[in-house]
Write a structure and sequence with these properties.
The protein is about 40% helix and about 15% strand. It is of the alpha+beta class.
Length: about 190
Amino acid sequence: MDTLKCIKTRRSYRKFLDKPVEEEKIMEIITAGNYAPTGKNQQLTHFIVITNNKVRKELITKVNEVLIKLDSNQEGYESLINPINLAKQGKYIFNYNAPLFIIIAHKKNNANAMADSVCAIENMMLAANDLGLGSCYVNQLRYLNNNPEMLTYLKELGLEDDETVYCSLSVGYVEKMNDIIPERNNKVTYIE
């Protein structure tokens, strides 16, 4: 796919088909993440790739268990008001039941960690789009990775002691891929 067309047709999908993503496509997506630029070319980004249905469901359960215990009025959890309320109703599926879920972690004390992680996830979303797959950037694990209960579970999944989660990605087949969206109207200032 043409690069600009890939960028212009990429969307965030929140409904995925119950169809596994082929191993070769998963490898292409991870390769795209590995080719992302990193500060000082350190290549410290860690991808935790989850395709196991049981583990994906356990992760949903764990996120809900942690959210239910949180106070949405507590400082730092303002972004989680809706997820907390949905979790308390038993209706919160933070990863949208995507058949492929990728956690992007990085070293805690690296000044470039967030930038490196976001560059990787953007490459991965574009690769998914080019491969005919939908994707969605997911923040919930980043918001929860200081929670001791969540941190213990994330370490069981492979998160290392000196790492933290910066973002995650839901990927899968969708009913219909979208066409090019209208041009965005972000503010642009030209200095000539």
